[in-house]
Specification:
The complex is a heterodimer of chains A (154) and B (125). In chain A, 84% of the residues lie in helices and 0% in strands. Chain A has one domain. The mean pLDDT of chain A is 91. The longest helix of chain A is centred in the N-terminal third of the chain and has 30 residues. The chains are: A mainly alpha (154), B mainly alpha (125). At the A-B interface, helix 2, helix 3, helix 5, helix 6 and helix 8 of A face helix 1, helix 2, helix 4, helix 5 and helix 6 of B.
Chain lengths: 154, 125
Amino acid sequence: MQNKREQKKYRQYDQLVKRLTPGSNYLQGYVRAFWVGGLICVIGQLISIAGEEWLGMTDASASMLTSVVLIFLGTTLTGLGVYDDIGRYAGAGSIVPITGFANSIASPAIEFRREGLVLGVGAKLFAISGPVLVYGIVSSIAVGIIYWLAGRIF
Amino acid sequence: MRVGDMIGILVKAFVVGGLICCVGQTLLMFTRLSSARILVLFVVSGVVLTALGVYKPLVDFAGAGATVPLLGFGYSLASGAISAVQTEGFFGAFTGGIVRTAAGISAAVLFGFLNALIFKPHAKR
């Protein structure tokens, strides 16, 4: 009798584990990251095409226009609290595009506003983007120097 | 630009950009990397892939699909540094990357700053 009740308990536990273990959740995560991230890139492409075709911009100007507009959208949606929702839905689809970089600047800046304009906003602006800039700039200088050395030697 | 060409360009941007985000999603789901570390990893990977000559063909193929993800920020940094070394010599390594990405960095600082002045913090849900 005791044994049967325990077996039933185990079965229920197994079912609970099956129900809560993320399996299809992985697929869902990929689908959401894919379509949201892809859509942000499409918006970027549309801005770039608009710059080149309508405003007669060069390639370089159009790509600057694209990043400036996307960053503006990223920071503004962060300020409105919408980007957090997008992030919860899309995961990396919201982190990896440049709008995610904008979000990483705008979000701590708003959050630490109460700590003042200098050490709050001014410093925390770079809480996450600072490391990104540090490692990006250092590695690009390294690449430039290696390229220069390679040009000298060969 | 013909409509057919434009649709082709947009589809390529969508697919490649989406796939790059799926790489990030893999890191997010299967590693314990925080989003800050993922951002750093993507920028540095972009620099390295550009230096190896791998990323430029992808940019030519997918346009914004390759430049809008953070890998593209690394691409701009590295390709800026390399082309400045070609035109200005050694110190191009120190100027090129930042010059190429200056608009984006300045925009992020400006809009991030204005944002903090205008908006109130949202309660974390």
